Amino acid sequence: MLWNAIFIAFKEIRRNILRSLLTMLGIVIGVAVVMTMVTVGDGATLQVSQQIQSLGSNLVMVAPSGRMGPVKVGFVQQLFAWQISRRFDVR
Predict the structure, then answer these.
(1) Strands in the chain per DSSP E
(2) If 0-12 CB within 10 Å is exposed, 13-18 middle and 19+ buried, where does residue 84 land?
(3) Neighbouring C-beta atoms of residue 83, cutoff 10 Å
(4) Is residue 5 located within the same domain as residue 17?
(5) pTM
(6) How many domains does one find in the chain?
(7) What values do phi and psi take at 78, rounded to 5?
(8) Are residues 11 and 23 in the same domain?
(9) In which domain, by residue range, is 79 found?
(10) pLDDT for 64 beyond 70
(11) Given pLDDT bands bounded at 50, 70 and 90, which one contains residue 54?
(12) Residue 50: per-residue pLDDT
């Protein structure tokens, strides 16, 4: 039963060779695009992480957040490590 199905499948592939080739080409292109997008996403994540790390570990930017619109740049406050430990009792 299984061998019969495999035989019929190969016979149909040979009969519709152009359709089979176009299908394989579409699958190859699709896999390549997915791999490329994942790689680009990983690269972007790595680059953002490196940029954040380059700011240093002694600087934290605190900005008010609201549900009704974007954060206004004028209200951003810089806190240094000693200020954080004093305000939030972090050791």
Answers:
(1) 59-62, 77-80
(2) middle
(3) 13
(4) yes
(5) 0.51
(6) 2
(7) -95, 130
(8) yes
(9) 57-91
(10) no
(11) confident
(12) 85
